[in-house]
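Continuing the batch. This is chain 6 of the set; chains 1 through 5 are on the previous pages. Same settings as before, nothing changed between runs. Recording input and output for traceability.
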Amino acid sequence: MTLSKLQYERERTEFGDEVKTLRKSKRLTGVILAAQTGISQSKLSKIETGALIPSTDDLRKILIILKASQSEGERLVEWARALRTEFVSWRFEHRQGLAAKQLEVGELERQAKRIRVFQTAAIPGLLQVPAYAKCILQLANVTHQLDLENAVAARIRRQQILYETERQFEFVITEGAALSRFCEPHIVIQQLDRIRFLFGLPNIKIGFLSNKSFLPRVPMASFVIHDSRSAVVETLTGEFPIEDQACIATYNEAFDDFASTAVFGVEADPILEEWKHFLSMHTIPSGVSIHESSACS
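Output for chain 6:
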């Protein structure tokens, strides 16, 4: 059952309190626990206040240092997993500002060596140019946060990870996502040119699904997979973090199916040229209402 916003926030706070209580019962300071686990003190503080739900790996490091009993440890691990897989609305995610959400996504990305992104709505955040990112985040700002510029800057800083050659990135983007009219056509054209530049990076594969292509399955939703150990699925009003291995395997299979019919790298140049020509011939109609959308993280 999906928790209400208040229930979910209460659960997160209670979870953090339990971790903090366990630490204090072992007479360890946050500074010492952070040093012994290799987790930053600021991150540990966020865990103990409920602002951040730890990954299973981070939580197990904490539990080992705190010498938690097997039953206590299993209970906390399952509790954290349930909180991470609970539906989280965008309104809840943005409660600390848009930039804070970008930092949280960036932390998740830094923990991964392989990231796979399937996007049906917009160009993925890791590939966005600043003008395009501003359009997306402005539409996603359903709680009217005041840190839009900081959020755009934080999203662009996340992209530094693309140049870390020990990491692997795979993107599959539908034609609908590539041509989505969130902003003026010249910005979308600039965005497509940016992607063409990234074709040259050896650790990045970017593929496109043309509407002329055969689709092996229905593209139900956008999703991101991190190292086959976690996934995030986007919906209109929020996201579902997933850690169940069987579910993640299903999303990997879906990604492979879509990738099998996508056109990758420089072979997609003719498609991109066709799309750029289409965009150059059109403008956004006046009076068009654009609905709330996800942050396309």
